[in-house]
Amino acid sequence: MTSTLYFNGVVLTMDAANTCAQSVLTEGETIRAAGPEADLRAQMPAGTDEVDLQGQTLIPAFIDPHGHFPDPGFIRLFRVNLASAPSGDCPDIPTALDRLRAKAAETPAGEWVMGVLFDNTAIAEGRMPTRAELDSVSTGHPVWVIHASGHNGAANSLALARRGVNRDTPDPLGGRFGRDPETGALTGLIEGLSAMGEMGDTDFLIDRERFWAGFNSCRDEYLAYGVTYAQNAWATRQMLEHFASLPADRDPGYDLMLLPIGELEPELSHGPEALDWPGNPHFTLGPRKLFTDGAFQLQTAYLSAPYHKPVDPAHPCGMPYAEAAEHRREVKKLHDLGFQIHCHCNGDAGAQMFIDAVAAALKANPRADHRHTIIHGQALRDGQLQQMAKLGITVSFFPAHVHFWGDRHYDTFLGPERAERISPCASAERYGVRYTIHNDASVTPTRPIHLAHCAVNRLTASGRRLGEAQRISVLSALRAQTIDAAWQVFQEGTRGSIEPGKLADLAVLNRNPLEDLDRIETTKVTRTIRRGRTVWMQVQP
User: Which of 354, 476, 488, 522 counts the most CB atoms within 10 A of its CB?
Assistant: First the structure.
């Protein structure tokens, strides 16, 4: 069993006392001790490897508390990236169409061509592409362009036909098919997860070979940024079967928590299969996932008051994705079965649906330490945070929105007053709500240091300070992606801090991020350690 001593640096343990140690000793896959270098040298076995940190900072490896691993790998290898600034370089629809045509030219006829990360709020035309425009890309390929939020898309005629959508198809609850107001003809726009159907999860486009290629690509990216534990928060049965194809005794080089969608995979919320499957110890089934609403970029996040500049007069407050009564029944069912629930709630009205459902479930069946979680919670009000504290509800915020869409929150989505409060981390601290922060990859790339910068400095892409009162400390931002992220999914006993007995998942940073909060973004990961082994190192110039 290999032991390693890390010394001559700063060690931020993220333990309950936020202890700062001098050195760390690992033994095999776990941490043996943290403390003074002399003490650790006195107990280290013969033949221990030594790593001189040279003044750098050692922290627990980052944990992604909400994302869609391995979607970033699929995008890199198989999709057409249509992201606009600040995350990409696609300025307008003609450029997007040209990129799709290039992909179609190298794709066998009849196979799907998929564009991703398209953002109608950032593109020059301010809209999604039309069915006719996507027909100009190809009539021999189904063409599907999905929005950066993952909550809507645009399809060409062949893609609509493959999906079985025509002008007579009714709009489902929480979704709609775009139609010409004069003729009723389909425009190609599909909004809401219920309307998107399989085109929302796109599992049908991923075979076993592509899955593992995307997995490996995503794993390598995450490790390069010091992230050793992540989530697939849209785990359909088909996707889970890909994960389950890995033999139980094989280490894929990464650890994941998989979240089945409650409404889509009810069989995974009953019986022994739900408890034991998929079987590989590196992939574990976690909370069940629910939804109450959509996305701010599409104005489908469900608000209690109208959007600052509504784009849909029929739905000025956005739309719920579920009937309140049915949502309560689903929450109660999962709660009574003993599952933890993660619920996507962007708007404050969407969040209230979940808060009320949890309150009702707890009244009927009190359950200590359930850790039911609001995902995103971008518009949570102080009164709601107080309710959550009493009910034991936690939240994972999305402060990357401050950088990527903060200016549009200010100008269009929420207006100046409400925009100041998006992802209200400081208010959560004030009311005693334990929280995490996430990038929701691939909506925004998994970059934990940049995410911390967003939560601490709250600067939009234009440089506007958005929400001075909601800024948090660097330490809080780091804990939200280490020990608090482990706690949120009941993993605090094995990971998230540098303490004896926990997994030796560590990251080395080139500087101490607690010093000079204005320089957080200059902090770089130089080494990633997973289960006691270095799995990534910065190439030295």
Answer: 354
